[in-house]
Specification:
It is a single chain. The chain has 374 residues and is α/β, with parallel strands linked by helices. The protein has eleven helices and eight strands. It has an eight-stranded parallel β-barrel.
Length: 374
């Protein structure tokens, strides 16, 4: 029995007691005439005191029974309709957020994959063997129009890692994204992310404060980029994809980059802040590479900071520089780092493999991290 029916039955009993605690005795005619008698209100004797008492008792009772019957029937009809609607609706599941503790993430960046196919898992295994610890973040870049790599995300999850995918709008206008021109693609992507059902870290238009990309500083107005970012996040949420950790990724400040604050979409649209920065010269330190940018970020938000792409150039000082990177990361309270385990198109080789000194320094630094697992 439903709560509504319980309440109606209680009201029915109260009303019945109010009219007459006990129904008066009623003598019915012979069995063959009873149905006719009841159908017509009791025949010619309905004006007697006994029959008046009976009718005062039975009238509200009959009404209450009718109400219960109608409401119960409506509950079946409309309840069934609600069930059918909710089963086809894109309702968001509830997902616990990724941990935001300092020094809890060790990641690997595996590069750009223009074919639409994400990297295979063996490169992650090779990095884990060198690092002495399996990464819990694996990052790659996806070009605009490519689908969400659900099978790869599932493979990473089986190994205790969360996927970071940076979506680059390399063939489209941020203004048109904000205007809804590409909503069909975004809805499809968001639906795939939602259906995956586990945490995914997504970035859009990485390093927009630098002149490196068509969507960035000097090529696109900050207002257009911000509008596009907000539109994407809003659309994903409307599709029920609440399993996204939104990573707003900027380039470490250097001569020629734009003001960080101009590209900020607001804390309600960002989960983590990512900073990409590299030790390219022997004289580089954590302070010279990341210090100024971290200070700028902390004037606009208290969101956690991840060193979303970083590495140290090969050379005689690589051991010392890697040690400095981990030490600075820990002292600054950032979430962790994602190592660029690639060789760039310009010939810069960031791989740890093949350099025993670098491997030893990285293992030592990684050992000090309390890597979060889901």
């Amino acid at each position: 029995m439903t709560p509504v029916e319980d309440q109606l039955r209680a009201a029915f009993r109260a009303k019945a007691d109010e009219v007459s605690p006990d129904p008066p005795p009623l003598r019915l005619p012979a069995p063959g005439l009873r149905s006719l008698f009841l159908a017509h209100g009791g025949g010619g004797n309905k004006g007697t005191r006994a029959h008046q008492g009976w009718h005062r008792w039975i009238a509200p009772a009959a009404c209450a029974v009718l109400v219960v019957t109608v409401i119960a029937g409506s509950a079946i009809v409309f309840g069934g309709s609600r069930t059918a609607t909710s089963s086809s609706a894109r309702a968001a599941a509830t997902h616990s957020p990724l941990a935001a503790r300092p020094s809890s993430y060790l990641g690997v960046f595996l590069g750009y994959f223009e074919t639409g196919r994400p990297p295979s898992y063996p490169p992650v295994e090779r990095f884990a063997a060198v690092a002495g610890k399996g990464p819990n973040l694996v990052e790659y870049v996806s070009n605009w129009g490519q689908p969400f790599a659900a099978s790869y995300a599932q493979t990473l999850r089986k190994h205790g890692a969360t996927m970071i995918v940076q979506i680059d709008p390399n063939s489209v206008s941020p203004a048109l994204i904000a205007a809804g021109r590409y909503d069909a693609y975004l809805r499809s992507y968001a639906d795939s992310v939602r259906d995956f059902g586990n945490r995914v870290v997504i970035g859009f238009g990485q390093e927009m404060n630098a002149r490196l990309w068509s969507w960035g500083y000097g090529h696109t107005k900050p207002q257009a980029f911000v509008a596009a970012w907000r539109h994407i996040v809003t659309l994903f949420r409307a599709q029920g994809a609440d399993n996204v950790t939104w990573l707003w990724t900027i380039n470490a400040d250097y001569a020629g980059t734009g003001p960080v604050a101009s590209w900020w979409p607001g804390s309600s649209y960002v989960t983590w802040v990512g900073i990409d920065g590299f030790y390219e010269k022997p004289s580089d330190t954590f302070s010279s590479v990341f210090g100024k940018t971290i200070a700028q970020v902390r004037t606009i938000t208290a969101r956690p900071i991840l060193l979303s792409q970083t590495a140290v150039a090969r050379g005689p000082d690589q051991y010392t520089s890697i040690h400095n990177l981990f030490e600075g990361m820990t002292q600054d309270g950032t979430l962790g780092l994602v190592w660029d385990d690639i060789e760039t198109s310009s010939g810069q080789d960031w791989h740890l493999e093949g350099n025993p000194s670098a491997e030893a320094a990285f293992r030592l630094g990684a050992a000090g991290l309390t890597v979060a697992r889901r």
